Amino acid sequence: MFGLGAAGAAVVGAGAVAASSLFDEQPVAHASSTSDPYPFYGRHQAGIVTPAQDRLHFVAFDVTTDKRAELVDLLQEWTAAAARLTQGKEAGSFGAVGGAPEAAPDDTGEALGLPASGLTLTIGFGPSLFDDRFGLAAKRPSALADLPKFPGEQLIPEISGGDICVQACAHDPQVAVHAIRNLARIGFGRVSVRWSQLGFGRTSSTSRAQATPRNLMGFKDGTNNLKLEDADLLRDQLWAAGQDGSAWMAGGTYMVTRKIRMMIETWDRTSLLEQEQIIGRDKGEGAPLGKKAEFDTLDFAAKGSDGRPMIAEDAHVRLAHPSFHGNAHLLRRGYNFVDGSDGLGRLDAGLFFIAYQRDPRKQFVPVQMKLAKIDPLNEYIKHVSSGLFAVPPGVRDGGDYWGRTLFE
C-alpha cells in the first residue's frame, strides 16, 4: 500500500478544527507550537486524527506473562506513565533523579529538560492477543480478521505482527524514543519488544492546517487524506461503533501497518514522464495529470490528444481511488524511513505505512489487493512487514486505563 492518501479520498465540509472527531465532542485546537502538549484523555485515543507530528517511534510487543491480572496491571501502569509523558513530565513520580539512589530511577532521563513536543501515545491489540492465554478469544472483533496474503509481498515474520503495539509520535525524535524506552522498561518481565521502527518526515497530513509532505520518491503524498476536520466521514469511515459487533471497541478504530521498502536506486533512474504516469500526478505541484493545482479533482474520463486517458488505467491514484472501492477511505499517518544500507550499497529506505479505518476487510484489504495485482509501482517497492491492531477507545479520565473496555 503506497500513496493511498494521494489517491484521492473525498473531502467534505470546511472549518478550522472538527469539534466531534477527537476528544469527547470537545473543541480541539491545534497546538500553538511544536513544543506544546496534546490532551491525553478523551473519547478517542490521541495520535489518530491529531495533526501528524514529524517523528515516529513504533513498537510491537509480545506479551510474555500468561497471567491476565499481570497484563491488566501493566496496562494500568502504562496508562499512568503515558498520561505523564504526553504532558512533558517524567514517566514516574520520582523521575530520573528523585528517588532513592540505591534503586533504579523511575525515568531513564534522556528527555530531561525537553518539552512535550506534541507527544502522542496510541495503543493497539493484535490478533495474537486474542488466543486462549487471557480469556479474550470471544471478544476478538470480526474486523480483526487476519489479513490475506497479498501477491508479491515478501513479509519477514520477525518484523511483523505482535500482541500489542504502541505508536509514539512527536516533533522531537528523542521525546518519542524516550516514551517507548520507558514503556518497555516498565513492561520488563511482562512484555518483550518484538520489533520497532523509527520514522521521520510524515507522509500524510491529518489536518487542513498542514501542508502536504513528500515521500522518498519525491511526490507529494496524502493530498486528499481523511482530515481531522471531516467529522462526518470520520464517523462513517474511521470510528468503530457498538453496532459493528464488538461493543468494547466503540470509539476505537483499526490500524494496519506495512513496512514498504522502496527500490530507490531503480526509481531514481526512471524518467520523470514515467514516474508521473505511474503515480497519476505531476511531481512538482502534485496536480492530477491534466490539471494544474494539487487539490484539483481527479478526472478519470479526461483524455489527451492521443485519445488515451490522461490518468492511465493502471495509474496508482486510479487503482486506489475510493470511487472504485465502494467509497472506502483510509486515514493515513505513515512516515519515511532510512535504516542505513543493505550491504550492497543500496539504501534500506522507504515508507512505514500506517492507516486507520473502521473495518480493514472493507477498506484496506480490497484496495491493497487491487494494487498488489496490477499497480506498476510494484516494480519499485517491496512489502516486508505487516501489522494489524484493534485500537481501543480513549482513556476517559485518571481512573480509566488503556483497554479497560476489553477486560471488563
From TrEMBL:
Transmembrane segments: none annotated. This is Deferrochelatase. Its cofactor is heme b. The keyword Oxidoreductase applies. Involved in the recovery of exogenous heme iron. Extracts iron from heme while preserving the protoporphyrin ring intact. Pfam families: Dyp_perox_C, Dyp_perox_N. The keyword Transmembrane does not apply. It is an enzyme of class 1 (oxidoreductase). It is found in: Cell envelope. GO terms for molecular function: heme binding; metal ion binding; peroxidase activity. Its EC number is 1.11.1.-. Binds 1 heme b (iron(II)-protoporphyrin IX) group non-covalently per subunit. Belongs to the DyP-type peroxidase family. GO terms for biological process: iron import into cell. Keywords: Heme, Iron, Metal-binding, Oxidoreductase, Peroxidase, Signal. Residues 45-200 form the Dyp-type peroxidase N-terminal domain. Signal peptide: none annotated. InterPro entries: Dimeric_a/b-barrel (IPR011008), Dyp_perox_C (IPR048328), Dyp_perox_N (IPR048327), Dyp_peroxidase (IPR006314), EfeB/EfeN (IPR006313). It comes from the Bacteria. GO terms for cellular component: cell envelope; cytosol. Residues 212-395 form the Dyp-type peroxidase C-terminal domain. The gene is efeB.
